[in-house]
Amino acid sequence: MLKHLLIGLIIGYLTGCSLLPEQGPAPKQLQLQPLSSSTQTQPASSNQSVNMILERPLAPAALMSRSLWYQAQAYELMPFRDHLWTQPLPDQLQQRLEAYLVDQQSGWSIQRDQPGNASGFRLRIHLYDWYLDVERQSLYVNLQVFLLDNQGQVRRQWRWQEEEPLLDNSAPELVNAGQKWLQRWAQALAENLEIFFRQEADPN
To answer: Tell me: the pLDDT tens digits for 160-185?
Structure first.
């Protein structure tokens, strides 16, 4: 009888322990900020109408999570323990790029990929890498962008494999470097799209 009572007390104690809050502060949550408007990209011509779907970027499972990643040695990525994204990186990229393109190109209609939305073009992004390289103290980004027509044919594609230097190997600095890189990338992508659509409107 005493044995059963002791077992019951131990189980109750362990169950109670599992309901206690975690020790220490919760992970800090970080996010990318809205992009600034660029004066270098010219707005689309008044007779040019562009309707485009911006798909949610495709990425490996690790980048679909809320973890921020660093590489301390080759072929091994680790998540920061005390920091998380407020939402997965692909969602942030989609939101920031959509707002930037709408702001830059008044003649363009940009929509997210949702049921019922149809367009003449689709912008598809493959995000392969986004992590802090400890040895090089830099953000490494590797992604590819495809512009597809309404038949699903690839009309243009662009590839970026770049590094952005960091002041230190920390999660906040990784986000700061990502913000700088994202600003330049969005501007370059907008310029590439502008060139394509102008050529479509006036092949000569």
So the answer is: 999 999 999 999 999 999 999 999 99
